[in-house]
Amino acid sequence: MDGSGTWDTVFVMSTVSKGAINERRTKGAINERIDRSARFYEKVFGGRILSRGDSEGAPAYIQIANTWLLVNVGGGSTPDKPSVTLSVPDPDKINGFMNIRVADIQACYELWKSRGAEFITEPIPKYGEIRGYIRDPDGYIIEVGQSTELKYG
Fold first, then answer.
1. pLDDT digit string (tens) for 72-92?
2. Burial letters for 102-129: b for 16+ Cβ neighbours within 10 Å, e otherwise?
3. Which CATH number do you get for residue 45?
4. What is the count of structural domains for the chain?
5. What average pLDDT does the segment 81-106 reach?
6. Quick check: is 2 in a domain?
7. Which of 20, 26, 107, 116 is most deeply buried (CB count within 10 A of its CB)?
8. Domain assignment of residue 130, given as a range
9. Is residue 118 part of a domain?
10. What is the pLDDT of residue 136?
11. Does residue 3 sit within a domain?
12. What is the Cα–Cα distance from 90 to 103, expressed in whole angstroms?
């Protein structure tokens, strides 16, 4: 988290195994109700809840494919971020989002919608991809996109 409530890569660990690079990415999100958010990512995206957090403020950890999502309640300033308060976003003023790339956006749209995902619109072709946006329970935006053969740039 960069302190403004935006998605940001917190940690990237790369390893080489049999000639392939494997990455584990960790994302952070500030959420008001950790358990509700953890269940959303488990149900919609098939995530595996590794830790549910606790009432003392420990974050929940959810593994989704090769990404670990940290869900945290946020809070006031601390010695290592003295002028920063972490809070949930304004759902109509987003300055960052998680981005998921898929091979078949229509299949993901149907599956994730059936699991409770709320898409802002159906997937729409735009700039060499087909994309749609989901809101999570705390207002974060998740872009879901499928590349097409049309190339830009």
1. 777 778 788 788 877 777 777
2. beebeebbeebeeeebeeeeebeeeeeb
3. 3.10.180.10
4. 1
5. 80
6. no
7. 26
8. 9-79+87-147
9. yes
10. 87
11. no
12. 30
